[in-house]
Known about the structure:
By secondary structure, the chain is mostly helical. The chain is 78% helix and 1% strand.
Amino acid sequence: xxxxxASRWWIAPAAAGVAFLAGLPLLLSAYTVSLLISVxxxxxxATSWAFFSGTTRYISLATAAFVGIGTYTVALLSxxxxxxxxxxxxxxxxxxxxxxxxxxxxxxxxxxxxIFTFGLTELIKQLVIWFEINQTKTxxxxxxxxxxxxxxxxxxxxxxxxxxxxxxWLSRSRVGYALRVIGxxxxxxxxxxxxxxxxxxxxxxxxxxxxxxxxxxxxxxxTYVDPNIAFNSLVSFQVLIMALLGGIGRPWGxxxxxVPLVLLSELLSGTFPHHFGIALGICFVVIVFFLPGGVMGxxxxxxxxxxxxxxxxxxxx
Length: 317
């Protein structure tokens, strides 16, 4: 019992850090708050993606689909319902759709699951385009919600905090251990008594619901959306690379990887707006060849190397 306080010494500093981040909008410019909104959004997306795909090795490229679902939920319902209700509905719709997708596709493995999830974004986008053209006769959806940048920031900060803390807790629970066994060898997981289908489907649905929530909150920044904006396939690849860059072995690794790529996107959008895809490709190559474990993997290797190096120097002296 005496080990618990020592093993959780970081809780108080973490709570203080969250409180500090919550007060930042009072100190920063609107532009900086807007930049932090993107960081928090992608931190939540990358953490959610890594918890399922990074652990089980079922690589999902459906992030953009669920972000778009959240965006369109707000576009359709924000004029009729209170914002809190709309966000809750976006979360629930993302969960239900992901549940159906998971039940029908998580028996697939390898490249087949990757291809299906990548095609899911395009499928939903085309269905939305067909509906808009045939029913509303326009692709435009306007969002008239009185939400300040500070409100959006606080909502995304709360989401990111809950997601990272939840992933940290779940990774140490039976669910986390089950996911890791599935990632190592799914056949062994089945023979160990793990209901692999239930674990995969529920975790996939829960993480996808978070993505829909993030999409719903982000949509409050816009006054206009269309299917091409809401269902942007590049988002799926951005989230994947962010998670790999930060490292999927720690709950906060993917969130760490979101920071440099958001800053890179902001830099290139002003100077080379059509070259971000090239930058993403270069980042992916760098990660594969030089950072296979991401930044957190590099930190772990340094942490293991420095004590050995110091011990070697002491022996030589």
